[in-house]
Amino acid sequence: RLQDVRDEVEKQIRHLQRQAATARRYQGLKDEERRVTAELLALRIRELDSGAAAHDSTTREREIEMQAALADQRAAEAALESRRAQHAARAERLSAVQARHYEIGSEISRLEQAIQHTRQLRERQRADLAQASSTLAEIGAHIERDERELAAVREDLGASLPQLEDA
Question: Which of 49, 101, 110, 160 has a Cα at 20 to 30 A from 65?
Fold first, then answer.
């Protein structure tokens, strides 16, 4: 009878050892998965940050260009007003100024569209960054849950060892 009990206890020990090895292997794979996922998210966040900075810089440049173009346009309009008194003598020059005025207006329109596009792109990148942060938070929650499960398995294993020793 003692041999039967001993055989049964050894069988349970082997089963528990296999479970413990499987849990360690699972934990190692989960740790690797978390590490790789965290690295991937960090790279994506870094890429989004650098892209946003580049787009912000471009937006600032475009805004400066727009301000310069607006200043040019206002200067052209002032010149146009001062020349109206001399319209008959300077009609040809007036045509050149008007052409410049329309050119600046189209340039402003193009720059405004580019700025709008850049702003939309920046908003999409911010949304991507928010989503990446959310995913990172979810991964953190999964890590905590897995650590709790691992602690429970270790506790079960610890509880089984005294029974094994008693047996």
Answer: 49
